[in-house]
Design goal:
Elements lengths: L1 E2 L7 H20 L10 E5 L16 E4 L7 H6 L6 H20 L2 E2 L8 E3 L5 E3 L6 E2 L26 H17 L2 H7 L2 H8 L4 H4 L1 H9 L1
Antiparallel strand pairs: 1-3, 2-3, 4-7, 5-6
């Protein structure tokens, strides 16, 4: 899988996308590989000799990444595929593991959402789209989308943090359990949503043993 600047954008946008690719490479170079919560970055192709103008060779640039056969978590959740409660909880645990991994290496993701997680051949979760992440206190290049954004002052010296990542993580966990975010928001009040998440007991779903397994 190859990630490269979009061919039909302005020169400014292409320069920004190249910055994002280089940031993503920097993040992958920091992280352990292989790791079962990450995809592998195989190579990075770039040419800094064009003056940054965004020529016709942009498809020859980019980051070559590991392919994941089951697509994004978001698409899987929005499909009609039957998903067990145990699998949903497993994804919640794996999402938290992925975020904890990034934080342990000085990286704030800054755009946590189900679209930015892929599923491997066994439906294991891999976090992706590290192109805007903050590393070692560098400002992030993007920020979270609306549903995952912790309201805060844009005047803050550092616009993202462990706290903002954890807010987005919590919103992601809600979507994993509710599956279709938009339908869930329209159909349920807060208390209805809380009841929805508690409809299946931990014992009946086998969640208690799964939680114990993943916290040992």
């Amino acid at each position: 899988m190859k990630k490269f600047p979009h061919p039909h954008t302005s020169s400014y946008d292409k320069r920004f996308q190249r910055r994002q690719l280089k940031r993503e490479l920097e993040v992958y170079q920091r992280l352990p590989t292989p790791h079962n919560r990450l995809i592998r970055a195989f190579s990075f192709l770039d040419d800094d000799n064009d003056g940054g103008g965004g020529g016709d060779d942009d498809e020859d640039r980019g980051l070559v990444l590991e392919y994941m056969p089951n697509g994004s978590l978001s698409a899987f959740l929005e499909s009609d595929t039957k998903i067990s409660a145990a699998q949903q909880l497993q994804w919640c645990v794996e999402t938290a593991e992925a975020v904890a991994l990034l934080h342990s290496y000085g990286i704030i993701h800054a755009d946590i959402r189900p679209e930015n997680r892929l599923l491997d051949e066994t439906l294991g979760l891999r976090i992706i789209d590290l192109s805007g992440s903050s590393i070692d206190g560098k400002p992030p290049l993007p920020l979270e989308s609306t549903r995952f954004y912790l309201p805060r002052s844009r005047r803050d010296e550092m616009p993202c943090s462990v706290i903002t990542d954890l807010f987005a993580l919590g919103s992601s966990i809600y979507q994993i359990m509710a599956r279709r975010w938009r339908l869930a928001i329209r159909a349920r009040t807060f208390h209805q949503s809380e009841a929805f998440l508690m409809e299946t007991s931990l014992e009946d779903a086998g969640w208690a043993s799964l939680i114990q397994h993943n916290t040992c």
